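hi support,

uploading two proteins for the ticket. first:
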Amino acid sequence: MNEKALFQLSYGLYVLTAAREGKQNGCIINTAGQVTNTPNRIQIAVNKANYTHDMIKETGEFTVSIISQKADFELFKRFGFQSGKDTDKFEGFKGYAVGANGINYITEGCNGYISVKVEQTLDLDTHTLFIGPVTDMEVLNDTPSTTYTYYQENIKPKPQAPQGGGNGKTAWVCKICGYVYEGEELPTDYICPLCKHPASDFEKTVR
């Protein structure tokens, strides 16, 4: 079985935001989609380890901002590579506005947003599936949306080549953020220190 077949699926990338008790937070997801059109319903799958997950679970509301091809890597670092449990992800960030539901939506590097009221949840072990009708949505600009492939090829920094040529050592490169771990074997429980993705998102190479 070749798990790389999953990479052939077409994924978009989104900033998922929520608000609770005056605190705004967000994270990067690639699992969002329309499931019905009468009424318009959206589904998202969110890792239970994400602080945004807990906020949605409690409040029953969220907004999905659709990342465009004008987004830069800083947007992914801000919302994807740190935890809202101990960081205010909106501190010093001006590329957002407040939606009708009181939740921030992202205007910088995004081409639209969709706000949802949760009506159903489904436990998926590591994730929760949230489904609900659209309460508000708007197109912000006509820049094409970013796919996972576009992110990999055009936004994510490429791993830096070793200075003075390769050293012949085995390395593991994170396919999400480009972080390099040097070593013959990557621990199965390894977590990327930069983007927090698991060992399954690393690819073996020789430097």
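and the second one:
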Amino acid sequence: MKFLVLQHIDIEHPGIFRDFMRADGIAWDTVELDEGEAIPPLDGYDALISMGGPMDVFEEDAHPWLADEKVAIREAVAERDMPFLGVCLGHQLLADALGGRVETMPEPEVGIMTVDLTEAGRADPLLAGLDPTVTCLQWHGCAVTRLPGDAVSLASSPLCAVQAFRLGRHAYGLQYHVELTPTTVADWGAVPAYQESLDRALGPGGLAPFEAEARRRMPAFNRDARILYDNFVALIRSR
């Protein structure tokens, strides 16, 4: 099995999923889009994964490769019926590329928060085994405000109505982060755009307590990540 991973900044990688993939003998190729790397043909890949990043889906003038990524996502999901997992920006790109809408939020959603699975989410195979209310890490300033026409909402929060959704049989977007490692918060806190949104949401000096709380909850975060990863791989194997 082999995955194609699209990254938009080098510190937003698959995180703990890389450990899971190595243990399972799953190979993956990484494309660093912000460094000018081109997306290869999708032939030979079993799944497409799109990670987060500090840019927004509507910033194609500043980041022209976003247009190419949307084309690749449409090909993977709409033409090839390829399993897809988008996290944060990747989630928003899935919605935008397939006819949904992404908009700037009045205030960013940053911190350790909860999302509630919808009735469809509680029944969805990707989220099977997770608690109906999931404690997770959020760090985003845009949100999906309109889903593609045939998409199904799987999770929500008070600040963001679309925290997860499914499109077709096995294309998924997750607004919240599941790929966390012990260095995630510190790494992301060094990115100016992320620091700005953190200060707006948590106030100056909010990084240290945020990082401490994330570290305290890391075993639970990684447990949920393992459940979701195993479910995603099972979906791929069942094709």
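thanks. also noticed: The mean pLDDT is 97.
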